[in-house]
Amino acid sequence: MSHKVRVEVVKGTNLCVSDLGGSSDPYVQVRIGGVSKKTHSVQKELNPKWEEVLEFDDVDPDHHVLLNVFDYDRIGSDEPLGKAEILIKDLPVGQEVNKVLALQGVTHGKLEVNITVNDK
């Protein structure tokens, strides 16, 4: 049975510095299965507030919610600021769950999300 997944990317806390000015321009890419969506970037901020909702249809419960935080760069490629992962089948159906996730692959930083899994 497939699900509909709603991911609200709330905020980041204490993200890593990536730009020369001592800040970053972070955004979050959310990937479930072969579908990828992203938030807007927040300019010059290490504690960004996105409060942005991304919705995914026809999601297999065995998929993961992959959350990748990047620093937007006008020139060159965007730099990773950490990642986190949540298994969809570990989430209750029909109930919003708040998660504060420690970002992996970096020395510090957290990402707060609200995730709701609903039957299709």
Main pleated sheet: 4 strands, antiparallel
Q: What structural class do helix, strand and pairing data support?
A: mainly beta
Roughly what fraction of the amino acids lie in strands?
A: over 45%
Shape designation: elongated
Structural overview:
The protein is mostly beta strands and 120 residues long. Helices cover 0% and strands 56% of the residues. It is built from no helices and eight strands. It has strands at 3-13, 26-32, 35-38, 49-59, 64-71, 79-87, 96-102, 110-119. A four-stranded antiparallel β-sheet has the order 4-1-8-7, with no helix packed on it. Strands 3-2-5-6 form a four-stranded antiparallel β-sheet, with no helix packed on it. The termini are close together. The model has no long low-confidence stretch (mean pLDDT 96).
Q: Would you spell out the secondary-structure blueprint of this structure?
A:
Blueprint (H helix, E strand, L loop, with lengths): L2 E11 L12 E7 L2 E4 L10 E11 L4 E8 L7 E9 L8 E7 L7 E10 L1
Antiparallel strand pairs: 1-4, 1-8, 2-3, 2-5, 5-6, 7-8
Short recap of the structure:
With 120 residues, the chain is mainly beta.
